Amino acid sequence: MVTGLEFTTVFGRGLVGELPDVARRPYLVVTMDDLWPTFEGQLAGDVAGVYRVGTLDLGQLEADAAALPPHRSIIGLGGGQASDVAKFFSWSRGAPLFQVPTAMTTNAPFSHRPLLRDGGKAVAIGFAIPEAVYVDFDVIRSAPPLLNRSGACDVLCYHTAHHDWKLAHDLGREESRWPYDPSMVSDARQRYDAVYAALDDIRAVNDVGIRTLMTAHRWGGAAFHNAGWNARHMDGVDHGFLYCLEYVTERHFIHGQAVGLGIYLGSELQENEPEEMLATLHRLGVDIRPEAMGVTWEDAATAMRQLASYVRYAGYWFTVADVRTVTDDLLERARERLYDTFGPWET
Ligand SMILES: [Zn+2]
Asked: Ligand 1 centre from 214 Cα, in Å?
């Protein structure tokens, strides 16, 4: 079901090779260094230039946008970063945009505003509606399984987000511009249920799994705009944890994988079906042990202990992190359950 404005999305095969005959010439390709050799042959033609994404820094991207070679359309080819930079250039230079996500990592190809960085903080500056988003089953399937599967966590986090929004409402702490809206929650829940029902297909990255998760992303990407720039029904303590983990470790993570750990730890803090969420993430095949992300359990525990102060520092909206104390007992129980489910980490 399409609600509000969602981007024209086409599923199929052999879609990249059609773009030279579709995108207005000459076209600029915005992609990642490691992806370009794979697609170079299919996009040969009237290429204005190839921009390889190396930063999300707003100031640098403004300078890069001004220095782009003359072009009459833009092809964004890659994951979240390539999608976001392609959106920003399309907005900056006014060229029509075609998006080709190469993995299901996030809903960035389906959202209006690019998520960039400015002075160490996340900013969403720009607005672009692509002519079409091309989801090629074979292209998606060729991405590493973890990149694809972890994208489901950006939908499974509705579980913790809904609890947080309701909690804020019940405690009289909801933001005045975002009053609790049960119809928005039930709309989001439908997408959650669809993804949950297709967990095994998403894990397998088969056609059903790709279509289901990308259709959910299509809804989620547009929902921020469609809800009046409100993401309360989609993000909660789960994303707060990710940002805090980045902050305490000064590392970057595969978005959905770290959000997945945030879903589990957040649901422990909420006392909101934590064991069920752990089982769901395990079945999805996303390893949320900190070591699988290159950090330690102690890093994750530190992020949890600092969460309450971090979310106020970062100006994040009200969640369970603002009211429930992270105790040693809670962390110990969470650690035991996590390693009981996924097994002890062996190097
Ligand atoms: Zn996210």
From this structure: 14
Pick from 253, 231, 347: which is nearest to 300 by CA? Answer: 253
Distance 96 CA to ligand 1 centre (A): 26
Element of type H or E holding 39: helix 36-39
Q: Is 87 exposed, middle or buried (0-12, 13-18, 19+ CB in 10 A)?
A: buried
Ligand 1 centre distance from Cα of residue 71 (Å): 31
Q: For residue 11, what is the enclosing H or E element? A: strand 9-12
Question: What pLDDT band is residue 122 in, cutting at 50, 70 and 90?
Answer: confident
* CA gap 263, 239 in Å, rounded: 8
| Residue (of 99, 197, 101) closest to 147 by Cα position | 101
- Whole-structure pTM value: 0.95
Distance of CA 80 from the midpoint of ligand 1 (Å)? 10
Judged against a pLDDT cut of 70, whether residue 2 lies above it is answered with no
Can you tell me the mean pLDDT for 303-315? 95
Amino acid present at 44: A
Confirm if 134 and 97 have CB atoms less than 8 A apart: no
Separation of CA 12 and ligand 1 centre (Å): 25
How far apart are the CA of 255 and the centre of ligand 1, in A? 7
Cα distance between residue 314 and residue 322, in whole Å: 13
Quote the ligand 1 centre to 242 CA distance (angstroms): 9
Ligand 1 centre distance from Cα of residue 346 (Å): 29
Q: Confidence band (pLDDT; 50, 70, 90) for 119?
A: confident
Q: Residue 155 burial (CB < 10 Å; 0-12/13-18/19+)?
A: buried
Q: Ligand 1 centroid vs 31 CA: distance in angstroms?
A: 21
User: pLDDT per residue over 12-31, tens digit each?
Assistant: 999 999 999 999 999 999 99
